[in-house]
Amino acid sequence: QSALTQPASVSGSPGQSITISCTGTSNDVGDYNYVSWYQHHPNRAPKLLIYDVSNRPSGVSNRFSGSKSGNTASLTISGLQTEDEADYYCSSYTASRTWVFGGGTKLTVL
Amino acid sequence: QLQLQESGPGLVKPSETLSLTCAVSGGSISSRSYYWVWVRQPPGKGLEWIMSFYYSGTSYYSPSLKSRVTMSVDTSKNQFSLNLNSVTAADAAVYFCARRPWNNWYFDLWGRGTLVTVSS
Protein backbone atom coordinates (compact mmCIF):
# COMPACT_ATOMS: atom_id res chain seq x y z
CA GLN A 1 0.00 0.00 0.00
CA SER A 2 1.63 3.24 -1.14
CA ALA A 3 1.49 6.30 1.05
CA LEU A 4 -0.79 9.15 0.12
CA THR A 5 1.05 12.04 -1.52
CA GLN A 6 1.32 15.34 0.32
CA PRO A 7 3.57 18.33 -0.34
CA ALA A 8 6.58 18.20 1.95
CA SER A 9 6.12 21.77 3.08
CA VAL A 10 3.85 24.79 2.81
CA SER A 11 4.12 28.22 4.32
CA GLY A 12 2.00 31.27 4.91
CA SER A 13 1.82 34.47 6.88
CA PRO A 14 -0.44 35.06 9.86
CA GLY A 15 -3.98 35.73 8.72
CA GLN A 16 -3.54 34.09 5.35
CA SER A 17 -5.07 30.84 4.15
CA ILE A 18 -3.21 27.76 2.97
CA THR A 19 -4.30 24.47 1.45
CA ILE A 20 -2.59 21.10 1.80
CA SER A 21 -3.36 18.47 -0.79
CA CYS A 22 -3.46 14.71 -0.28
CA THR A 23 -3.49 12.52 -3.38
CA GLY A 24 -4.34 8.86 -3.30
CA THR A 25 -5.93 6.39 -5.68
CA SER A 26 -9.29 4.93 -6.56
CA ASN A 27 -8.59 2.27 -3.92
CA ASP A 28 -8.54 4.74 -1.06
CA VAL A 29 -9.24 8.48 -1.26
CA GLY A 30 -11.20 8.17 -4.48
CA ASP A 31 -13.42 5.35 -3.32
CA TYR A 32 -14.21 6.26 0.27
CA ASN A 33 -15.30 9.37 2.09
CA TYR A 34 -13.15 8.26 5.00
CA VAL A 35 -10.36 10.80 4.75
CA SER A 36 -9.11 12.27 8.00
CA TRP A 37 -6.53 14.91 8.86
CA TYR A 38 -4.23 15.16 11.86
CA GLN A 39 -2.12 17.93 13.33
CA HIS A 40 1.14 16.94 15.02
CA HIS A 41 3.31 19.22 17.05
CA PRO A 42 6.69 17.65 17.91
CA ASN A 43 6.68 15.57 21.07
CA ARG A 44 2.94 15.87 21.44
CA ALA A 45 0.11 13.52 20.63
CA PRO A 46 -1.29 13.89 17.12
CA LYS A 47 -4.67 15.62 17.08
CA LEU A 48 -7.66 14.79 14.90
CA LEU A 49 -8.69 17.85 12.89
CA ILE A 50 -11.04 16.54 10.22
CA TYR A 51 -12.81 13.23 9.71
CA ASP A 52 -14.93 11.79 6.92
CA VAL A 53 -13.47 14.35 4.48
CA SER A 54 -15.04 17.48 5.91
CA ASN A 55 -16.31 16.99 9.46
CA ARG A 56 -14.73 18.72 12.43
CA PRO A 57 -14.67 17.12 15.87
CA SER A 58 -16.03 19.13 18.72
CA GLY A 59 -13.48 21.66 19.88
CA VAL A 60 -11.61 22.01 16.60
CA SER A 61 -11.55 25.53 15.23
CA ASN A 62 -13.71 26.28 12.19
CA ARG A 63 -10.56 27.72 10.61
CA PHE A 64 -9.84 24.13 9.60
CA SER A 65 -11.87 22.70 6.75
CA GLY A 66 -11.62 19.68 4.47
CA SER A 67 -12.80 18.71 1.03
CA LYS A 68 -12.30 16.08 -1.65
CA SER A 69 -12.38 15.87 -5.40
CA GLY A 70 -11.71 12.57 -7.10
CA ASN A 71 -8.55 11.00 -5.71
CA THR A 72 -7.38 14.19 -3.99
CA ALA A 73 -8.42 15.49 -0.60
CA SER A 74 -7.52 18.91 0.74
CA LEU A 75 -7.14 20.59 4.11
CA THR A 76 -7.56 24.35 4.22
CA ILE A 77 -6.46 26.44 7.17
CA SER A 78 -7.78 29.97 7.14
CA GLY A 79 -6.68 32.88 9.28
CA LEU A 80 -3.28 31.31 9.93
CA GLN A 81 -1.97 31.60 13.47
CA THR A 82 1.51 30.98 14.77
CA GLU A 83 0.28 28.00 16.77
CA ASP A 84 -0.79 26.33 13.53
CA GLU A 85 2.87 25.70 12.75
CA ALA A 86 3.06 21.90 12.87
CA ASP A 87 3.12 18.78 10.74
CA TYR A 88 -0.13 17.73 9.07
CA TYR A 89 -1.05 14.23 7.94
CA CYS A 90 -3.93 12.90 5.90
CA SER A 91 -5.22 9.37 6.17
CA SER A 92 -7.68 7.23 4.26
CA TYR A 93 -9.39 3.91 4.70
CA THR A 94 -8.59 1.58 1.82
CA ALA A 95 -10.21 -1.15 -0.20
CA SER A 96 -7.90 -3.65 1.52
CA ARG A 97 -9.54 -2.82 4.88
CA THR A 98 -6.39 -1.09 6.00
CA TRP A 99 -5.42 2.54 6.54
CA VAL A 100 -2.87 4.59 4.67
CA PHE A 101 -1.34 7.89 5.70
CA GLY A 102 0.30 10.66 3.79
CA GLY A 103 3.97 11.49 4.07
CA GLY A 104 3.18 14.61 6.06
CA THR A 105 3.35 18.33 5.34
CA LYS A 106 5.33 20.76 7.44
CA LEU A 107 3.51 24.06 7.81
CA THR A 108 5.62 27.10 8.50
CA VAL A 109 3.92 30.30 9.61
CA LEU A 110 6.21 33.08 8.56
CA GLN B 1 -10.62 12.16 30.18
CA LEU B 2 -9.18 9.09 28.51
CA GLN B 3 -5.44 9.12 27.89
CA LEU B 4 -3.05 6.78 26.16
CA GLN B 5 0.57 6.32 27.20
CA GLU B 6 3.09 4.27 25.27
CA SER B 7 6.11 2.66 26.88
CA GLY B 8 8.91 0.55 25.54
CA PRO B 9 12.61 -0.35 25.75
CA GLY B 10 13.94 2.53 23.69
CA LEU B 11 16.70 0.37 22.17
CA VAL B 12 16.32 -3.02 20.51
CA LYS B 13 19.00 -5.16 18.84
CA PRO B 14 18.58 -6.29 15.24
CA SER B 15 16.79 -9.64 14.88
CA GLU B 16 15.27 -9.34 18.35
CA THR B 17 11.65 -8.73 19.32
CA LEU B 18 10.31 -5.26 20.02
CA SER B 19 7.68 -5.11 22.75
CA LEU B 20 5.63 -1.99 23.42
CA THR B 21 2.78 -1.31 25.78
CA CYS B 22 -0.03 1.23 25.66
CA ALA B 23 -1.62 2.05 29.00
CA VAL B 24 -5.18 3.31 28.84
CA SER B 25 -6.34 5.59 31.65
CA GLY B 26 -9.73 7.19 32.15
CA GLY B 27 -11.62 4.50 30.27
CA SER B 28 -11.86 0.76 29.76
CA ILE B 29 -9.92 -1.09 27.12
CA SER B 30 -12.80 -3.58 27.03
CA SER B 31 -15.17 -0.93 25.75
CA ARG B 32 -17.30 -2.04 22.82
CA SER B 33 -17.12 1.48 21.46
CA TYR B 34 -13.54 1.46 20.25
CA TYR B 35 -10.82 -0.25 18.32
CA TRP B 36 -7.27 0.12 19.61
CA VAL B 37 -4.57 0.93 17.14
CA TRP B 38 -0.80 1.03 16.62
CA VAL B 39 0.83 3.51 14.22
CA ARG B 40 4.51 4.27 13.71
CA GLN B 41 6.62 7.05 12.24
CA PRO B 42 10.14 6.26 11.02
CA PRO B 43 12.61 9.14 11.36
CA GLY B 44 11.96 11.78 8.74
CA LYS B 45 9.04 9.88 7.27
CA GLY B 46 5.28 9.84 7.44
CA LEU B 47 2.94 7.82 9.60
CA GLU B 48 2.39 4.12 8.97
CA TRP B 49 -0.63 2.19 10.24
CA ILE B 50 0.38 -1.13 11.83
CA MET B 51 -2.75 -2.75 13.19
CA SER B 52 -6.15 -2.32 14.80
CA PHE B 53 -7.95 -4.64 17.20
CA TYR B 54 -11.33 -4.84 18.89
CA TYR B 55 -12.11 -6.15 22.37
CA SER B 56 -13.77 -9.23 20.84
CA GLY B 57 -10.46 -10.24 19.29
CA THR B 58 -11.10 -9.03 15.75
CA SER B 59 -7.85 -7.67 14.38
CA TYR B 60 -6.65 -6.05 11.19
CA TYR B 61 -2.99 -5.85 10.19
CA SER B 62 -0.82 -4.01 7.72
CA PRO B 63 0.00 -6.63 5.05
CA SER B 64 3.65 -5.62 5.12
CA LEU B 65 3.95 -6.28 8.85
CA LYS B 66 1.37 -8.97 9.51
CA SER B 67 3.85 -11.86 9.52
CA ARG B 68 5.93 -10.24 12.26
CA VAL B 69 3.29 -8.65 14.48
CA THR B 70 1.42 -10.04 17.44
CA MET B 71 -0.59 -8.25 20.06
CA SER B 72 -1.95 -8.94 23.48
CA VAL B 73 -4.36 -7.36 25.90
CA ASP B 74 -4.15 -7.21 29.69
CA THR B 75 -7.58 -6.16 30.88
CA SER B 76 -6.49 -6.29 34.53
CA LYS B 77 -3.94 -3.56 33.82
CA ASN B 78 -6.09 -1.86 31.17
CA GLN B 79 -3.31 -1.97 28.63
CA PHE B 80 -2.48 -3.54 25.31
CA SER B 81 0.83 -4.52 23.82
CA LEU B 82 2.51 -4.82 20.45
CA ASN B 83 5.23 -7.34 19.66
CA LEU B 84 7.24 -7.01 16.48
CA ASN B 85 9.77 -9.76 15.87
CA SER B 86 12.92 -9.96 13.77
CA VAL B 87 13.41 -6.22 13.83
CA THR B 88 15.77 -4.42 11.49
CA ALA B 89 16.92 -0.83 11.21
CA ALA B 90 13.80 -0.17 9.13
CA ASP B 91 11.69 -0.73 12.24
CA ALA B 92 13.25 2.20 14.06
CA ALA B 93 10.46 4.70 14.61
CA VAL B 94 8.28 6.57 17.03
CA TYR B 95 5.45 4.18 17.87
CA PHE B 96 2.03 5.61 18.70
CA CYS B 97 -1.03 3.95 20.13
CA ALA B 98 -4.40 5.40 19.24
CA ARG B 99 -8.15 4.83 19.42
CA ARG B 100 -10.65 4.37 16.62
CA PRO B 101 -14.35 4.70 17.38
CA TRP B 102 -16.28 1.59 16.39
CA ASN B 103 -17.94 1.89 12.99
CA ASN B 104 -15.85 4.93 12.19
CA TRP B 105 -12.74 5.26 10.13
CA TYR B 106 -10.57 7.81 11.92
CA PHE B 107 -8.35 7.93 14.99
CA ASP B 108 -9.77 10.30 17.56
CA LEU B 109 -7.26 9.98 20.38
CA TRP B 110 -3.52 9.37 20.34
CA GLY B 111 -0.65 8.89 22.72
CA ARG B 112 2.48 10.99 22.51
CA GLY B 113 4.53 8.12 21.14
CA THR B 114 7.63 6.27 22.21
CA LEU B 115 10.90 6.24 20.28
CA VAL B 116 12.45 2.92 19.37
CA THR B 117 16.00 2.67 18.06
CA VAL B 118 17.33 -0.52 16.47
CA SER B 119 21.05 -0.99 16.94
CA SER B 120 23.54 -3.57 18.14
Defining key terms:
heterodimer, A: 110 residues, mainly beta, six-stranded mixed sheet, three-stranded antiparallel sheet, globular, B: 120 residues, seven-stranded mixed sheet, four-stranded antiparallel sheet, 11 strands, 0% helix, 51% strand
Would you kindly provide a brief summary of this structure?
With 110 residues, chain A is mostly beta strands.
Structural features, described:
The complex is a heterodimer of chains A (110) and B (120). Chain A is built from no helices and nine strands. Chain A has strands at residues 9-12, 18-23, 35-40, 47-50, 64-69, 72-77, 86-93, 99-101, 105-109. In chain A, a hairpin with a 5-residue loop joins strand 7 and strand 8 (99-101). The model of chain A has no long low-confidence stretch (mean pLDDT 96). By secondary structure, chain B is mainly beta. Helix content of chain B is 0%, strand content 51%. In chain B, strands 2, 4, 5, 6, 9, 10 and 11 form a seven-stranded mixed sheet that branches. Chain B has a four-stranded antiparallel sheet with strand order 1-3-8-7, with no helix packed on it. The model of chain B has no long low-confidence stretch (mean pLDDT 94).
List the helices and strands and how they pair.
The complex is a heterodimer of chains A (110) and B (120).
Chain A: E1 9-12, E2 18-23, E3 35-40, E4 47-50, E5 64-69, E6 72-77, E7 86-93, E8 99-101, E9 105-109
Parallel strand pairs in A: 1-9
Antiparallel strand pairs in A: 2-6, 3-4, 3-7, 5-6, 7-8, 7-9
Chain B: E1 3-7, E2 11-12, E3 18-25, E4 34-41, E5 48-54, E6 59-61, E7 69-74, E8 79-84, E9 93-101, E10 109-110, E11 114-118
Parallel strand pairs in B: 2-11
Antiparallel strand pairs in B: 1-3, 3-8, 4-5, 4-9, 5-6, 7-8, 9-10, 9-11
